[in-house]
Write a structure and sequence with these properties.
With 348 residues, the protein is an alpha+beta fold. Helix content is 23%, strand content 27%. Among the domains are: 88-267, Glucose Permease (Domain IIA) (Distorted Sandwich); 304-346, Membrane-bound Lytic Murein Transglycosylase D, Chain A (Roll).
């Protein structure tokens, strides 16, 4: 009996130590991830360690004091962890925990991607190698950024790591959920530097570039999703300049169509927020203009032949590289029709 009690006590102590270790890790994540100086530029490096954290009048906001004498207001992760966006459909393994049809999303809505207490860092300033949309018959739900193996990969926005696993196709994958409900994906990593549940700030290193999973070479596969529905990251980020296109991202439901890539012309708010009726009328007008343009182009391309003495249908067909049958079809006549000198017939 005494031996059984000893084994039970040892097991209980082991569980307690594991729980304490996990709590300690989470506290460290909460304390330090949002307690680092934000990276203002696009350099991939962790920020300056902080010296102290002070309360403010708002329970959800802290003042972080840094060793270099600066300070910053930050959202308190302990408060954020209780918000619905970080509890609803929170699955640390599923790539898409929502399993919703994108058609159920509103026709148009807005997301505050970055506000006064959030930051942004471009994952990599470069020319994307493979764009959003269909590729080799498969839906490519993000973009591929050239990324040498071992190169540090920064988080694009503040948020909480929902997934940090090796996943079929994606390889080493990190998914971060942000306060707006937006999720960003970082795939094919050679190494993951964060765990599910960790809080990260924009610019924090979440992994290293690589070529794991379904990959033909080192690159970073980057996705942006809302409630599981993927849209072209280029609507949000200009990767060639590293610029965040919108702090407030206005989204239309057709962004989630696999065939819809970023179109620069629809940055204009009036165009983005046109009503469906206005879209329909504009589409009809465009269709009429396109039809008229096609008709004009076809008319301009039509060629005619003026009948001369001695002409025959077979001779005209050879001259214009067509057939007698086609000439008869175009001109509504028979092969036995007598050609009249001076008459014009269509040859294409």
């Amino acid at each position: 009996m005494k031996r059984i009690l000893c084994i039970f006590t040892a097991a209980l102590c082991g569980v307690t130590l594991l729980a304490q270790e996990e709590n300690s890790r989470q506290e460290d994540s909460l304390r330090y991830a949002y307690g680092r100086q934000q990276v203002e530029s696009n350099t991939r490096q962790n920020g300056t360690p902080y010296a102290d954290t002070l309360d403010t009048g708002s329970p959800g906001v802290k003042v972080v004091l840094y060793n270099n004498g600066t300070y910053r207001f930050v959202k308190d992760p302990a408060q954020m962890a209780q918000e619905e966006v970080f509890t609803e459909c929170w699955d640390t393994h599923a790539v898409n925990p929502y399993r919703e049809n994108p058609d159920k999303l509103p026709e148009r809505f807005s997301l505050w991607v970055v506000d006064t207490l959030d930051a942004y860092v471009c994952p990599n300033i470069t020319t994307p190698r493979s764009l959003f949309g269909y590729r080799h018959g498969r839906h490519h739900q993000g973009i591929d950024l050239p990324y040498p193996t071992g190169t540090p990969v920064p988080a694009a926005f503040d948020g909480r790591v929902r997934v940090s696993n090796y996943t079929s196709g994606y390889g080493n994958l990190v998914i971060i959920r942000h306060a707006s409900g937006l999720e960003t994906f970082y795939a094919h990593l050679s190494e993951r530097k964060v765990e599910a549940g960790d809080w990260v700030s924009a610019g924090d290193i979440i992994g290293l570039g690589g070529s794991t999973g379904r990959s033909t070479g080192p690159h970073l596969h980057f996705e942006t999703r809302y409630r599981g529905a993927a849209f072209d990251p280029a609507w949000l980020i200009d990767f060639k300049t590293g610029t965040l296109r919108h702090r407030l991202l206005r989204i239309r439901s057709w962004y989630f169509n696999p065939n819809q890539r970023y179109v620069q012309d629809v940055d204009d708010e009036d165009e983005i927020f046109r009503t469906d009726e206005e879209d329909r009328k504009l589409a009809e007008e465009k269709a009429k203009k396109d039809a008229a343009a096609r008709a004009a182009a076809e008319a301009a391309a039509i060629r005619y032949h003026n009948i001369r003495s001695g002409d025959t249908l077979s001779g005209i067909a050879r001259q214009y590289h067509t057939t007698v049958k086609e000439l008869c079809r175009l001109n509504g006549m028979k092969e036995t029709t007598i050609l009249s000198v001076g008459k014009r017939i269509r040859v294409n």
